[in-house]
Automatic annotation (TrEMBL):
Keywords: Membrane, Signal, Sugar transport, Transmembrane, Transmembrane helix, Transport
Name listed for the protein in its UniProt record: Sugar transporter
Chain ranges of the Polysaccharide export protein N-terminal domain: 44-141
Organism field: Confluentibacter flavum
Highest taxon of source: Bacteria
Amino acid sequence: MKNHFLVVIILINALLVSCIPHKDTLYFQNKSNATDSTQTIVENPKPYRIQINDILNIRIKVTDQDNVQIFNPIGEGNLNATAGERAYFDGFTVDLHGNIRIPELGYMNVLGFTTEDIEGLIKDKLLEEQFKEQANIFVTVKLTGLNFTTMGEIGNNGTRIIYKERVNIFEAIANSGDIPDTGNKKDVMIIRQYPHGQKIYHIDLTDVAVMNSPYYYIQPNDLIYVKPLKQKAWGTGTTVIQNIGAIATILSLVTTSILLLNRI
């Protein structure tokens, strides 16, 4: 009988250990020695520099707008297309050599430039080849939304676009259905694209200091991967209440087995 009792105790301890700690489910914990969370200062990120496969939205305005119709997309096409699809067809995609092709102006290398830099390049080229200062040229260059992909233990896997110039990791996760309790918030992987290849970065979303990480703001074409916690692989509940049900089921099975063995 003592052996049976020992087995039950071991099962209960194992299930309690398999619960996900409350601190592993919380964001923005102050893990430093400082107690004043207001000391955390989020620095402005460096301007994003254009990479291969980025899609740019370019608009050119002058005093006589009829003179720049050839530069600006006319917006025709499938009216049922999504905003992302229209951006793909109307935008200027950066090719494998880092170039975009603009009507009348030809190819222009934009790899590694900021959108502000590109505005200046286009304006200078227009003044040099097409217009005079009196045309009052106004050029805007924007990324056609910030697209990223989520995988793993997160609400919704897949690729999505947020139409903002800056998106932090929490905004990206919120737009993807959040990370469930069974997701590892302490070690979220960001796989980032570069002209020479890919790099993998690891960030801890449970630590408020993540806001000062150079990877706090995501970049176009980032892949965000959330690993599952071991508790999910074990198949146990995530809370004590859920594990009580599992314990009750196992106890019932153990008790039934003991009674049957005693009858033999």
